[in-house]
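Retro notes - structure team

What went well: the batch runner handled both jobs without manual restarts.
What didn't: labels got mixed up in the shared folder, which is why I'm recording both outputs here explicitly, each with its sequence directly above its tokens.

Job 1
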Amino acid sequence: MTLSIRHALAVAATLPPLIVPAIGAAQGDVEVDIQSQYVEEIAALRADSRVQAAMEHIVALEPRHRTDLIELTEIPAPPFKEDRRAARFAELLREAGLTDVTIDAVGNAVGRRPGRRGDRIVAYTGHLDTVFPEDTDVTVRFDDDKMYAPGIGDNTRGLVVVLGVLRAMQHAGIETEADILFVGNVGEEGLGDLRGVKHLFREGAEKIDAMIAVDGGESDRIVYGGVGSHRYRITYKGPGGHSWGAFGTANPHHALGRAIALFDQNAIAITASGEKSSYNVGRIGGGTSVNSVPFESWAEIDIRSGDQSKIDAIDAILQAAVEQALQEENADRTEGPELTVDVDRVGTRPAAKGDVSAALVQRALAATSAFGIEPQLRISSTDSNLPISKGIPAVTMSRGGVGGDAHAPGEWWQNKDGQVGIQIGLLTLLAEVGLSK
């Protein structure tokens, strides 16, 4: 039996009241079926006295959540330099009661909470890194009810959600069937290239059976599929020289300009129809002065889609444009050696088709609708890309509250029903790991 979202919301309204008042349902244009067994599973969890105690504790922890958010936000954590934040997050895991806490070979902070049976492992993760350089001022400032700082939402708040769920479980003495790994992972942003979760799910690693990531959006947002990406750094190289005396030599900037123009002219046909896809020349650089032929010209390029075949098609167009531009610029030179080009893949995120009927997705939908919220299914580029692409159940769920201007210096977060995001995360996690009797 399946229930529409609106039917599930109606069922939720007949169940025992939640610890906090239900918030308004989000409006969406997609009807998603929730299987009745998962609505009933979440209802049973809500009725358990231990879960009720944990839900109450999440509300009581709000002052601590605020303190943690400020402290962790003010520890810089650009990709590849997350070590200070990882160390503090590991300390907080220990303070919450975990004894098996480590920082692994790539910098993930991982705390294990053993289950009674221990025959499955579920990872509950938030990424440690932000997009901002190490010298960015990350001091938290306040304006009315909003908190402003680079990275405060994406994803420092996600780390607070992970800690909040752990502390609530510890306070209520909740035992689970499966083991849980509470993780602050590295490398989600930018050129981090998902290196944290790639390490967790690497060949030969201890098997993780499912993953719930906390990253982004308001409480109605559930990411069940992955927008994949290929990222490149393209570098043309030549001898350089004086703009007058060396005129006629092959010019790396001119070659790069040709390549970008050819790429844009031809790739647009792929993005014009079918599943959404995109491409972007995000950064360019090189050269020494206005009156010098540059000896190097580079660009960083991002290609994205939820359909791997479209990523591959745009990628092929990029490769052809880069080679054609090289040949044309070399053919047009009147003196000097030929240009060369380096094409370096600097990022690969697999596109991942999600399954709405998968148990973990259904549990996330049911837990969200239990709060009177109409869940919104999305595909996005998150840590969940990797496990989903390997056929391992994974979702990315909200960090709660509201926020804006992510990846910008004016990023902000507001604690508007922020506890609800943590409570939804708790219910989803408990449904996936199994509550011991």
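Job 2
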Amino acid sequence: MRLTALALIMLATQLAVAADNADTQKKLTGTWKGRVENGATGHEITFADGVVSGVKDGTRDLGKGTIKLDLTSEPYRLDATEIKKDGGAGKPYFGIFALDGDSLTWCVGTKEVPTKFETGNGQFKLVLKREAAGAAKTPPASVKSSEPAKYQVAELKEPAPEKLSASVRETLGTSGLRISTAGGEAICDIWLRTNVPVLSASSDLSDRKYPLESGTLVGALRVSQKKAGDFRDFKVAAGVYTLRYALQPTDGIHEATGQFRDFLVLLSAADDTDTARISNAEDLSDLAIKATGASHPAILYLNPPQSGREKSPAIVYVAASNTHGDLAILVAQTSAAGNESIKALQLEVVASGTAKE
């Protein structure tokens, strides 16, 4: 069969693309280490024989998937399809990548192809460096329970800061709580809302640990130390913030930390002036991201409320586990409204300590 000139050109193009894909796949082969930009650290990604696999912190299995390259236009595509435990195809992940020698940037989305190399809006950006061939691997460290840093909490007999709107201040208690180091250095001050609106007795609470609607105003925070960090160890700038209850999204990006769903999210006092619940999740996220100036909100994890916490306010300590480091937790109570069976709301706010994801 004779081939036309057009067919020959198309065949040559296909062969060139296949050669480029094979060359790039060869360049990707190996182990890469790094982190999510402005997020979690300790990622180790390995490409081999058309399959990508990953672990975090040397112990947590991130799964594996088949990869598909597309170098026909920039930014180049690097997609992955999850390989389920039974060997079948699972969830698709859409990605773009940039490869420069021993540096790899891979931006992955679970819903659509990313258009920019950035973390946020349902996607995350991995910044990776190639591990040298033959480099010794550090064996996974066993979980240790070290003595957590000591803190103290005391009543702060002063009203909430003037930087909060008048309507927000009216919902808060007349005094606050100050968290300090054992040596007395102030870290932050918290004012809790009184009569926090809670869900009705008939509400389904199976997806959360607190009887609250996402977006509900819970209190206000004044950060004193410039190096104060949130549950992801993101450094929070000194300033005044509102605190609103939020639930971690149920998407592919957050599945590894699904046990941590209940949070207080920080919003700038200048931007959050209305006491009404922020019902739109995207609006809440946008305001929270604006407050940090980064690609992710600042968050304070809410430990599930425990019984037997008669002494309140108090700082309690939880030793490290395979999901988090040592935790120092502020236990405090405030009044609740909207449910006759819930007169008081016990909040357990992680004041120090981070997730391992």
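One thing worth noting from job 2: The radius of gyration is 24 Å.
We'll revisit the folder naming next retro.
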